[in-house]
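Go through this chain.

——
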Amino acid sequence: MAERMIIRLGDPLLREVSKRVHTITPQTEKILDDMAQTLYSDKGRAGLSAIQIGIPKQLVVMDCGTGLIELINPIILERSGAQTGPEACLSIPGVIGYVTRAAIVKVETYTRHGEIVTIEAKDLLARCIQHEMDHLEGILFIDYVDELYAVRSGKKLKPRDADPILLQRRVIRK
């Protein structure tokens, strides 16, 4: 396993749509292992998509406190309810925004062993899954927000600080 460099906002790769994984190879497993190492090396973070380490494939790793979860070619089958809460991103360090997402999701995904599994998630795990799956479509959490806040202080960023970040977004209203 190796820790990988995380690409940052401004890199056009973050806006690309990730490609499906057609065959799970030892290289795919190495990428998943490296992603987990990268995720765990940055304490306090919940998820990471392959695009964030420069690999445009539909791969996600996450740990919301119950152990590592890997998603390969995930598809959301169902969404219900709503929750609004803070989100941050390894690719946009130092800022958070409040995003409304489904409270419960049902996701179908492949495991690294090629099995299809269904995951039913709620609350933080549901939020994390949706956040990371957005990355697979080139969507960032800033695409949903009008205001950003400093991670450390929780204070609203001043327009001069927030504008360069918000200018790099695609406005999405769902």
About this structure: Residues 12-166 form a domain with the Peptide Deformylase fold (CATH 3.90.45.10). The chain has one domain: 12-166.
